[in-house]
Structures are given as C-alpha cells and as structure tokens.
Amino acid sequence: MAQYAERLDEVFHALSDPTRRAVVRRLGTGPASVGELAEPFEMALTSFLKHIRVLETSGCIRTVKRGRVRECVLEPHAFAAVDGWLAEERAVWESRTDRLERFVLSGTDDEREDGS
Amino acid sequence: MAQYAERLDEVFHALSDPTRRAVVRRLGTGPASVGELAEPFEMALTSFLKHIRVLETSGCIRTVKRGRVRECVLEPHAFAAVDGWLAEERAVWESRTDRLERFVLSGTDDEREDGS
DNA sequence: CGCATACTGAGCCATGCGGCTAACTTAGCG
DNA sequence: CGCTAAGTTAGCCGCATGGCTCAGTATGCG
Questions:
Q1: Using a CB-CB distance cutoff of 8 angstroms, which residues of chain A are in contact with residue B90?
Q2: Nucleotide nearest to A44 (CA to C1')
Q3: What is the pLDDT of residue A4?
Q4: What are the two backbone dihedrals, phi and then psi, of residue A86, each rounded to the nearest 5 degrees?
Q5: Which of A78, B21, B32, B55 could disulfide-link to B61, CB 3.0 to 4.6 Å?
Q6: In-domain check, residue A71
Q7: Domain extent for B8
C-alpha cells in the first residue's frame, strides 16, 4: 500500500488553482489546443501557458505539438493518485472510528495511542 | 451539482505539502496537541505552527486551546469537498469516454464539442 | 511564588507563484 | 515570398510561502 504518492505534491498544487481546475474540467470533455483552452480567461496567453506547464509537469495533462498548435489531453491516471491518497486517509480514519465505536459500546479502554 | 467548491483552493493547497499531509495522516488516528504533532519534524515549532494554521484555515482540521495546550482534530468533512470535485470530474470524463465508445462502435460522428 | 512547559507574535530572509510586456520562432495560407 | 496566427522565451514585478530567530505570554506543577 501507499505506492501512490510520488508527484502528489505537484498534483495537489496543480489543482489548488481555479484556472487550472477549470482547464482540467474542460479537458474532461475532450482534447483542446492551448488557444482554445485559454479563450475563456482574461489573462495573457503567456500567463496562461504557465498554468499549462504546471498541469503538464504534475502529470495531470499531456501535451503534444502538432504543426504550430499544441494539443492538450487529460491524463486521468494522475487523479488516481489523489483518489488513492484519499482512500488511504479514509481507511486510517475509519479504522479509528471503528475502534472508538467498540470502545463506546464495550466500555473497555481501547484508546491509547501514545507509546509512553 | 457542483455545490462543493468554496474552499477547494485552500484545501488543495493545504494538501500540497508533505508535512501537512503527514499531519493529516497522523490526525486520522486521533486528536493530538501541536507539540505531539510537531515532534517527528526537524523544523522549529513556529515554522510548524504555520502549517497548522494553513490546515486550520482550509478547514482540514479544527483546533481548540485547552489550558496551555492546543488540541488538533481532523475535520473529515473537508475531504468530502475534494472527493466531490473528483467525482464530478470523473463524471464528465466518463460521459465523454462513453460518447467516444458509441462513436467508435457506431461509426457515426458524435464528437464535436466546439459550438463554432 | 517561581520556574518549566507549551505555545504565540513579530519580523527577517530566500524562493516561488502568478500576473504582465516585448521580442522571437514556426507553420500554414495565398 | 510574405503575412498572419499560435506558441514560446526572457525578464520584470508584487505578493505569498516556508523556513528561521528572538522575545513574549500564560498555564500548571512543586
């Protein structure tokens, strides 16, 4: 278990920006060029390109240059990492609430986690 | 749909740091004081406290001061937001692959999404 | 009371982020 | 060939982040 990680930092960072999340959302509906993706946003193209780079280096998207156009496609694989982390987290948390539940129901002390 | 969001920026940002993810993981096993949480890390307590603040303002954790000790507890609710976003994302993406599948199987053109 | 413990606040510093403009490169079209 | 369209590179700017130290504050124990 816990094999996910790796670029988890970068993926979470990539998703922490609304512009980038919007791009991801858009790419969910299919591939698009940088220009197409940039169109809904006010910012300069160069600024927007930085977001694309962040998404790409984090592994959230893949891009290829065809002619003078750069095509971007979603890399759903990257989100599995987030999903996996979340699942592990929930597993830890749920096993804890399970123990708590047993403790409450049984009245026995099952609740010390500091090894002192 | 899409009711989650709100502090999604902050939550993703909070989770983009390994120290903070480790804290979240630890808190999954139960509440802890700032000092307890800080112990495994090299950094100064004041530096560590900033991480706690980030986690708190993002809504990932809740803290209360009892005596001179500040207790931190996980706020699993916050992760539901991430989970929700992820689910929406996947929904978009899967409806797209469904359409693609139909297209491939039927041979009809079902694949234009730009309204031009 | 006095002292150690557990934070807390203020403020410094280097780096990184997210925006910008200006100038350049390539590709496609006529 | 020459012009336009689509990126791309380089570099500037202000602000946020994540580390640090040093000097409080306040609680609990003896």
A1: 76, 79
A2: C20
A3: 60
A4: -60, -40
A5: B55
A6: yes
A7: 2-78
